Amino acid sequence: MTLRTFSEDEGGVGVEVKDTGTGIPNSHLKKIFDPFFTTKSEGTGLGLSISHKILENHGATLEVVSEVGKGSTFTIHFPGARSHVV
To answer: Per the domain annotation, does 85 fall within a domain?
Structure first.
């Protein structure tokens, strides 16, 4: 797993988390932020949906790119202080 931070326009900050796991099939990518969606036998399927909502409430975005057999990259984009209005 690798973690990378980077500067974005207007003072924003990006955080990228990349793994080399099994990846997420395209049929699941559209659902991973839905509450209660899970492919695991245990768990609630709430982790990504709650994380997505918290970030959204703070003006940030969360995106994922994944390739089966190669891994996934989750990227959070935090807005700069001047571009975020509460």
So the answer is: no
